[in-house]
């Protein structure tokens, strides 16, 4: 589990195929970018751009993970060198500054607007239909590993468009500052919304 509070911005330094087959995954070497690795061991979980990955090797100020083809097909930002948001797994004694995050990307959104508004930035994202029902005014959503609050939701035939206000600190310390219209982003919907829907759907099934 995670909180969606980015601890550091690292960088994917290398991407190495795990095989020659078309469905092969990749091995990533990630520079930690200031993330404290002193308490990280092989087998620990680290969220990379919102996707939970398992550490398989350690190096000074860097670590390796393997990403399956399934994960590559359902995420963005893990298939090439570049900056990435990093967060170590939550400990029970940690402060929950964001919200409970599983690190499992539910789908991809598309940035339709990202621009300054006063001292902040407005970020608008188009979400697919299968995720739209989970997005609500003042609800939580994870974008590229960052816990954010939804300010507005507009439904449409293909899903919805939701708006987020980003304070200067969030823009400064995450990779969200690099977003542009047309960019795709990893989305994780709120865990509570997922379970509420499941409970409501099973309640309607005849005994």
Concise overview:
This protein has 207 residues and is mainly β. 14% of the residues lie in helices and 44% in strands. The longest helix is centred in the C-terminal third of the chain and has 13 residues.
Mind sketching the topology for me?
Layout: E1 8-17, E2 26-31, E3 45-48, E4 51-59, E5 62-67, H1 69-73, E6 82-88, E7 107-117, E8 120-128, H2 129-132, E9 140-143, E10 146-156, E11 159-166, H3 168-173, E12 184-189, H4 191-203
Antiparallel strand pairs: 1-2, 1-6, 2-5, 3-4, 3-6, 4-5, 7-8, 7-12, 8-11, 9-10, 9-12, 10-11
Structure characterization notes:
- Helices cover 14% and strands 44% of the residues.
- It contains four helices and twelve strands.
- The strands form two sheets. It has a six-stranded antiparallel barrel with strand order 1-2-5-4-3-6. It has a six-stranded antiparallel β-barrel with strand order 7-8-11-10-9-12.
- The longest helix has 13 residues.
- The chain is globular, with a radius of gyration of 17 Å.
- 36% of the residues are buried.
């Amino acid at each position: 589990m995670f909180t969606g509070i980015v601890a550091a911005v690292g960088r994917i330094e290398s991407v190495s195929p795990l095989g020659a087959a078309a469905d092969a995954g990749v091995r990533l070497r990630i520079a930690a970018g200031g993330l404290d690795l002193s308490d990280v061991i092989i087998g620990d979980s680290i969220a990379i751009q919102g996707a939970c990955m398992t550490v398989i090797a350690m190096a000074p100020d860097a670590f390796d993970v393997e990403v399956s083809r399934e994960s590559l097909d359902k995420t963005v930002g893990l298939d090439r060198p570049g900056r990435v948001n990093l967060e170590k797994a939550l400990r029970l004694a940690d402060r929950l500054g964001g919200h409970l995050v599983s690190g499992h990307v539910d789908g991809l959104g598309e940035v339709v607007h990202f621009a300054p508004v006063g001292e902040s930035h407005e970020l608008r994202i188009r979400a697919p239909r299968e995720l739209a029902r989970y997005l609500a005014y003042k609800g939580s959503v994870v974008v590229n590993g960052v816990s954010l609050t939804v300010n507005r939701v507009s439904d449409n035939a293909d899903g919805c468009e939701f708006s987020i206000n980003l304070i200067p600190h969030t823009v400064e310390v995450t990779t969200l500052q690099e977003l542009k219209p047309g960019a795709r982003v990893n989305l994780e919907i709120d865990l509570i919304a997922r379970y509420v829907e499941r409970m409501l759907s099973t309640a309607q099934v005849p005994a």
